[in-house]
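To close the chapter, one final illustration. This time we ask the reader to focus less on the individual chains and more on the assembly as a whole: which components sit near each other, and how the overall shape emerges from the parts.
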Amino acid sequence: MVLIDSWYTAFRAKLQAIACHFGYSIQEAEDIVHQFFLDLLQKSIPDAIQNPEAWLVTAFKRRLIDLHRSQQRKGNYLEIESFNLPSTQEIIEKLETDAALINHIASAYKKLPARFRRVIYMKYYQGYSTEKIVALTGLTHQTVYNNLSKGIQHLRQHLKKDAVLERLVNFVLCLLP
Amino acid sequence: MTYTVEELVIDDSFIAYCTRSNAADIARWDDYLLKHPETLITIEEARKLVLGLRYMLQKKQNELSATDDSPEHALYVASGKNIASTGEPAARPRRGLGWKKWTAVAACLLLLVTSGIYLPYRPRKSATPISTAAKTNTGSGETAQSQPGEHKTIFLPDSTKVMLNAGSRLLVSPGFGKQNRNVYLTGEALFEVAHNKVLPFIVHVAQYKIKAVGTRFNVKAYTNDRYSETSLLEGKVQILLPQGKNDIVYKTLQVNQKFVMNIPDSMTTNVAAKPEVVPLSYHDSNQNIETAWVSNLLIFENQPLSEIKNILERAYNVTIHITNNDVAHYHYTATFQQEAIEEVLKALQLSYSFSYKKEGNQITIYK
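The assembled structure is written out below.
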């Protein structure tokens, strides 16, 4: 009971957004998510779920497929089946084990002009807030913001060319509910 | 209002949401997703970018420069082996260990940092690493010099205050204070320049000049270091680079900026001098690393032993010989204040192991 409550608090927003992604209205999505968690309360949950986020997303996808099959029309079976939203843990595990992926991101970063790399490095490696970067570099807030924003924009363009982010999506979920 | 991927990725609160590090930020972005479920795909892309960038920068910290492509810059880049990356297993397709490994890496890094910082400040058993000589006045045409293991404070005829770090030499030009305010530095010094708009204060080092009117800055230009640096703490200074018979203004530094120029190595002829400007490095909110020596602090931030060696030699008046190239590339992060040289070496050994023997002032480090 407590477990399901905490899952509801932590993952309700994401599940509701998934339902909306497949065409349900916010109200419909909310109802589906509530019913999903109510049903979970009636079921026996496996003891050793290591990655609740992934487990819930997969279970919820099954629910959407069931709704589709029972003529509630939203989504497409194959589309729902192939829709993967990796959990934080899965993203990190993928980053840890896929050296080529890291090299791709590094290569995209290396292509950035130095002024972009400097602020990106300070924010994502050194963990500084934008205000702290402003104080340390002596640049204006607007310049730091622009350099970060443009830097990320360029990075996305480079990554899209190599379809890198898709690789983070398209690895198969192994956890099945 | 909804956010674009770029806006999300650079938002500090969103980054905290991605790393699950702050409950308020998690609640904020969950609420945003509830109100704007149509942004799910945008949020997911932004989340992957944040996590991917963070992880990549940690994994590749030894290879990447934040400011240029030169592999030498010690602030962001270190060549060769690094303790943060050594011991990392090859990629392996296992599940379930992700968080443990992640936590272990973080714990190791924390240990490495704290192993230096929290060393007890015991009284030194052997020679004092730094002694502070009495303040002296140095006139025009004279030379002030500090020995290894010694700091020296001098006052120039125009009331400019100069703190010389260990093993440094400052020559004051003959016409100082009347025709010019030229000084020539080998080593490291912190300048507090007296204001004089008519006669600019010019520090000459091997490859460039620093021109100031009245300001506070640190110049590091040892002949055996791979970098020469000028760090600005107050006011403004101009960096002048020679071009033919004249000098050109390469850059006017802003406060908290540092000019860095690598010294071309005679052994590697193809590496040209390459100037750049980078932010100062802060150890904490009050202490920047560039001037830590003034407070008798030795702060190493991910520096190879080959560079630490030079600093220790000057601070402790010892000669260190590293016999093994691998060991010379071990990187350390640590802070020392009052430790004897043996305690410093022992603390470094704990982080990444090597052996050493000390005979008088000669120290030999081997694997």
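Residues 52-72 of chain A form the longest helix (21 residues). Residues 2-85 of chain A form one domain. With these observations in hand, you are ready for the problems at the end of the chapter.
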